Amino acid sequence: MTTENNPAAILQPTAVVDWESPIPPTDLIFDDGEPLESNRHRIAMNVLIRSLQQAWTDRNDYFTGGNMFIYYSSTQVRNRDFRGPDFFAVLNVDGNNSRQGWVVWEENGRYPDVIVELMSPSTAAIDKSIKKNLYEQTFHTSDYFVYDPFDPNSLQGWHLDNNQQYQPLTLNERNWLWCRRLNFWLGTWQGTIDRETAIWLRFYDVAGNLVLLPEEAAKAREEEAKAREEEAKAR
Q1: Does the pLDDT value for residue 26 go beyond 60?
Q2: Is residue 56 very low, low, confident or very high in pLDDT (cuts 50, 70, 90)?
Q3: pLDDT tens digits for 148-191?
Q4: Pick the CATH number of 7-234 from 3.90.1570, 3.10.450, 3.40.50, 1.10.3470
Q5: pLDDT of res. 19
Q6: pTM here?
Q7: pLDDT class for 9, splitting at 50, 70, 90?
Q8: Which residue from 59, 119, 157, 167 lies 20 to 30 Å from 177 (Cα-Cα)?
Q9: Cβ contacts of residue 218 below 8 Å, gap of 6+?
Q10: How many CA atoms lie within 13 Å of 187's alpha carbon, on the beta-carbon side?
């Protein structure tokens, strides 16, 4: 994602998370008008969000979003200096609630369980240092991944251990990483989405099957119905 002029100040973890303040901030900003790095970054973000929603279409106990502000302290609000992850998921929350952003003190202190940052040359160092430290030390986010949509070999990930420290994940034989909290693999997939051909970051289930987008799932159902119809005619 894009960053402010002083990225270190933007994402420096606070010593005390004061979301329990008697008078929490109310003058929150949820849109700064800043676009994502590129159209490919936008598509890549939506692929993760929409495929997770498709996979969990029968569930209402989670929230997933991207490029949304996450507010977690009064100091951060006063500084007007934080932007949210490119993709995040929070489990065991009411998924029916409408949210402009993720406000920790309005969510019973809940932080994202999984975060993915879509890197670019200008943000990669921050994503793998300052943001990583924030998600580890302040958010205590279980699974954190980074990926550059223009570099198919850039996938990295970390899992929070019992000592609340990130341990690097090891790629499997397919160069995928396991996301424990979502119970999905994260790996690359080459194809065309929204008229752009690229190597996208996608979810795969435990059996190695691609987690489909809504339109892909609809097409698969149509093809299955057509195959059954042709089989019936043949009989």
Answers
A1: no
A2: very high
A3: 999 999 999 999 999 999 999 999 999 999 999 999 999 999 99
A4: 3.90.1570
A5: 44
A6: 0.83
A7: very low
A8: 59
A9: none
A10: 19
DSSP for the chain reads ----S-HHHHHPPPSS--TT-SS----------PPPS-HHHHHHHHHHHHHHHHHTTT--SEEEESS--EE--HHHHHHT-----SEEEEESS-TTS--SSEEGGGTTT---SEEEEE--TTTHHHHTTHHHHHIIIII--SEEEEEETTEEEEEEEEEE-TTS-EEEPPP-TTS-EEETTTTEEEEEEEEEETTEEEEEEEEE-TTSPBPPPHHHHHHHHHHHHHHHHHHHHH-
CA torsion 89→93→94→98, rounded to 10°? -40
